[in-house]
Design a protein that fits this description.
The chain is α/β, with parallel strands linked by helices and 277 residues long. The protein has two domains: 2-55, no CATH class; 66-272, Rossmann fold (3-Layer(aba) Sandwich). The protein is built from eleven helices and ten strands. It has helices at residues 2-9, 17-27, 31-40, 57-64, 75-87, 120-131, 149-152, 166-179, 204-208, 219-222, 227-245; strands at 14-15, 44-45, 67-71, 91-95, 136-140, 158-161, 183-189, 192-198, 254-259, 264-269. The strands form two sheets. It has an eight-stranded mixed beta sheet, sandwiched between helices. Helix 6 (120-131) links the parallel strand 4 and strand 5. Helix 2 (17-27) packs across helix 3 (31-40) and helix 5 (75-87) crosses helix 11.
Length: 277
């Protein structure tokens, strides 16, 4: 019945928001249920029209059925969550115990005067509900630890690293390895950043950070402007999309080193890579 309803009202294979809203009322569907039904019927919500040259309807459905966890919802994580929601990844898990502070305002997408003092994961859920109400967000206001990894990452297809502590990053990588979940890692400091992708059984982060035993990276000294997290988070999201759609070449065994001061990006084989972040 939904297919016939959509076929009568769609603009070609595109379903505008008023039609989707009407379908939600008529069939008593949630926004997510309606979007899933639209994609399963071979139509495309008009909000994704600019995706279609690179992402087919079938691939859009794959993204909608995906679940991605973002561990850390600050500088990197806020942008990752926003971009995943706009792309149409249907289920997100936002994990962060912290609240927004005034010094976050210079770079964190989810930070505003209105969210100061509020939990970052809860603010992420509210933001995404405004950006794309078809996306379901599970906001977890707790720190990530290996002891609770199974509970936090249950059903997750990919994990995005938005952390700023090396010890917690290594715990996350170890947990993803045990649970069989690919991890996309990003790190930022000042003008510089790193991105790499780790599949289960690979010890990329352990090798990458073998020379950095301390808990904090050098971002504690260099700080971060507004543009570095936006760039590195976007690269993380590109890796996540490629993992879920099975396309392109991933950063496995390689580290993409981003130098925005000199506008230079270099992909370095792990055996040659060192870290200062």
């Amino acid at each position: 019945m939904l297919h016939e309803f959509l076929a009568e009202r769609a603009e070609g294979d595109l379903v505008p928001w008023p039609v989707q809203a009407e379908a939600m009322r008529h069939f008593r569907l949630s926004c997510g249920e309606a979007e899933g039904g639209i994609l399963e019927a071979g139509f495309l919500p008009t909000r994704y029209r600019r995706n279609r040259r690179m992402i087919s309807v079938a691939q859009q459905l794959t993204l909608f059925r995906s679940q991605v966890a973002v561990v850390g919802c600050g500088g990197l994580g806020g942008y990752v969550l926003e971009e995943l929601a706009r792309l149409g990844v249907g289920r997100l898990v936002a994990i962060d115990p912290d609240t927004f502070e005034e010094h976050n305002l210079n770079r964190q997408l989810l930070a505003s005067q209105a969210t100061l003092g509020r939990n970052k994961s809860a603010a992420a859920a509210e933001r995404i509900a405004q950006v794309n109400p078809a996306v379901t967000v599970r906001a977890i206001q707790a720190p990530f630890t290996r002891e609770v990894a199974t509970e936090l990452l249950e059903g997750v297809d990919v994990v995005a690293d938005g952390l700023d502590r090396i010890d917690t990053r290594l715990e996350l990588a170890a947990a993803c390895g045990v649970l069989g979940i690919p991890l996309v890692h990003g790190a930022i400091a000042g003008w510089f950043g790193y991105v790499t992708t780790v599949f289960p059984g690979e010890d990329t982060l352990q090798r990458l950070y073998s020379r950095r035993p301390t808990t904090k990276g050098i971002e504690a000294d260099l700080g971060n402007p507004s543009f570095t997290p936006a760039v590195v988070a976007s690269l993380e999201v590109a890796e996540i999309v490629k993992i879920r759609l099975g396309i392109g070449t991933l950063l496995r065994g390689r580290v993409l080193c981003v130098n925005l001061l000199d506008m230079d990006m270099e992909c370095v084989a792990l055996a040659e890579a060192t870290t200062s972040t």
